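In this supplementary section we document a worked example of the pipeline. Step one takes a protein sequence of length 315 as its only input; no multiple sequence alignment statistics are reported here. Step two produces a three-dimensional model, which step three serialises into structure tokens for compact storage. The input and output of this example are shown verbatim.
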Amino acid sequence: MSRLISTEMQAVAQAEVVRPFYLIDMEFSTPLRLWTGLGDLDVPTGDTLVINGDFSGGFTGWTTIELGTGTVTLVGDSVELQAGNFSNRAGLRQNIPTVSGTNYRLNFSTTGRARVIIRDMVNSNNLVNLNVEAGQGAVSFTAASTNTRVEIRNQEAGTITIDNVAVYYTQTYVGLGDLLKIGQIREATDLSANGTTVTLTGVKSSLIAVARDEDYQGKIATIKLGAMDELSNVITNPVQLFSGFMDVMIISDSGESSTINVSIENKLIAFDRAYVRRFTDGDQKIDYPSDKGFEFVTSIQELEIIWGRPSPRDS
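The serialised model returned by step three reads:
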């Protein structure tokens, strides 16, 4: 089956070093997020908060910074920042809406060392103030208010090019390494409802309690594919490979270690289920609680209605 390469995957294909990884999202009362590496991983998700981050609309959404002899020049879909020193610097800045206490990540590409300043505009404090070397830049921060300014500038002698600026909300995934295994994900040319499995080995007792006590059947589980560069930075938003409903969860506890195996049904399985609806008052109120159109359905069953001829009591 042919598949179009998304913009995200094109960015991965252009990277010099690529380290793939998988993400698992399970919809429990407290969402469970796992990945096939070690340690915690902050993964960008959703749409970028930056306006015109690819500069296809020129400087729309951006404020340019040109001090002394510093210059900001649009070259195609990139921006050149030419500077001499701190007093003759050049840069770009943009304010973005954020949620206090929420984690975000700034991604961008640069051909030279750039200075990144992320500032909380409500409290007038810098959250980040550091140099980022040439390549694919990734800077994480936690917002402290509803208004945050992102600034990228050149304050050293020379010219650097900036493009593909994006700020994403991030979600934290817990690494299980080789203890997390994913079953085969099969695609078909027809509408076959092919499922898959996820196996967790050496899991904590808290997760065993979730698997044992929570009503998980029918809840959503999602598998995504992501990629890192040589510096372990997530290159772009992971892409979804599979999404389905959790079905059967088998727990094996040997005393020393525990294993959970979860089977996940393809969403297409819903086409095999019969949805029975009836012309009754109770069924109608499932969708329309105030509708009384079927209120007397029960009372008129088997009711004989005399119409167009004398009734027996009139004759």
